[in-house]
Amino acid sequence: MEMDLMSWVQLAVVLLCVAVGGRLGGVGLGAAGGLGVCVLVLGLGVQPGSPPTSVLLIITAVIAATSVLQGSGGLDLLVRLAEKMLRKYPKAITIVGPFVCSLFVMLVGTAYVAFAVYPVVAEVAASARVRPERAVSASVISAGIGVMASPMSAAMAAMVGIMSTQGIAFWQILAVTVPTFLCATFCAALSVFWRGKELEEDPEFQRRLASGDYQWLAGGDLSKNYEEKKGAKTAVVIFLLGILVSILVGSVPGLRPEWISGDKVTQLPIPSLIQMVMLATAFVIIMVCKVPSDKFASGSVFRSGLIGVVGVFGIAWCTGTFFDSHTQVLSDAFSGIASSAPFLFCVAAFCVSTVIFSPTVSTTIMMPLGLKFGLPPEFLIGTWACCYGDFMIPGGAQIGCTAFDRTGTTRLGTFVINHSYLRPGLVFVVSGTVIGWLISNLVF
């Protein structure tokens, strides 16, 4: 069976929506996906697929818990802890920076925490006379991809929701992704450890120093002006307990309730478990820590999280509608990829992720597609790092952190992609894909 002319037209519609939506990002990405669904269904007569409801509900529940944590002051507390850790080993900032920044991303599932400490990474590096480009570039890459090792990130929610249909336990995903992330982070940091000239020998830094343009980052130790909110520590503890409950109950089938309906036994699905536990966690934080009602959804985490939900909703529905209607054709065309060249799928996933600008959306699109192609779920989990190519074209984090480096060593480049973040990003993706594949062979 082959694709006819109408099928190619439908594919062109999907690719156009992905390309245009990828440039717009966020809500624009979701809106472009919605337009694609309208064209496919109303214009071309394609039967609509089902939106990824389970994934969307997990992401929404996680956003609710994290935004309440932010309203309680818990995220600010984590930022101050990160700053203290960064200042403890200034000479090793190129290694310490990426691990510290990504550690807090792993805990709370959002890059917000890391973005708040990027200026500290640049300041500590410059104060220690370490070329800031090294620490900043590796930290931004590692923290941005840290969501692949976070049990509470939107990207992990997408992966858990998809892989739960394949009988994969929550702990199995974490058993692969966490060590993979840590090893790949070390590789990324090592790749820039000796990068470029030393700070005091850098021509741009010398120029800024001579012209008086350069000043040491003002503000010093941010924790001196920080006042911890009452209940912030308690909120962090409750949030972490919620994570532990989700992992424990999701990983041990005997802890999840079962229901008998006729001859069929139904067990509580992992996505539903995460949804209810994280909503309950948000409620407990609100009540115990007395979080004001105006703080529930006023922070940056809630706003950026809902933007991500819209993006996933629209574009995943669009691609799902097309792929669901051509499942057999695609399976026949790519049936050999599972045995002959599975890593070609990784290349395709990476290319898609470079224009999507959202690991969550890339995961939602590519992982179900990989399963349709006949790729084993353990292979897709192991090579998940290939879905994190959004660093190729500099985005908000890269642009902002380039400005944080007042020495001028971190650069965006003159050809868009020849920027300071390219080397650690590529090293992370390549090493993470290979290492993850090896680890998945041990776990499964």
UniProtKB/TrEMBL annotation:
Keywords: Cell inner membrane, Cell membrane, Membrane, Transmembrane, Transmembrane helix, Transport. It catalyses: (S)-malate(in) + succinate(out) = (S)-malate(out) + succinate(in); L-aspartate(in) + succinate(out) = L-aspartate(out) + succinate(in); fumarate(in) + succinate(out) = fumarate(out) + succinate(in). It is a multi-pass membrane protein. The keyword rRNA processing does not apply. InterPro entries: Anaer_Dcu_memb_transpt. Pfam families: DcuA_DcuB. The chain crosses the membrane at residues 29-46, 53-72, 92-118, 139-163, 169-194, 234-252, 272-289, 301-323, 335-357, 421-439. One of its GO terms (cellular component) is plasma membrane. The keyword Cell membrane applies. It comes from the Bacteria. Its main location: membrane. It is found in: Cell inner membrane. GO terms for molecular function: C4-dicarboxylate transmembrane transporter activity. Belongs to the DcuA/DcuB transporter (TC 2.A.13.1) family. Responsible for the transport of C4-dicarboxylates. This is C4-dicarboxylate transporter. It comes from Sutterella megalosphaeroides.
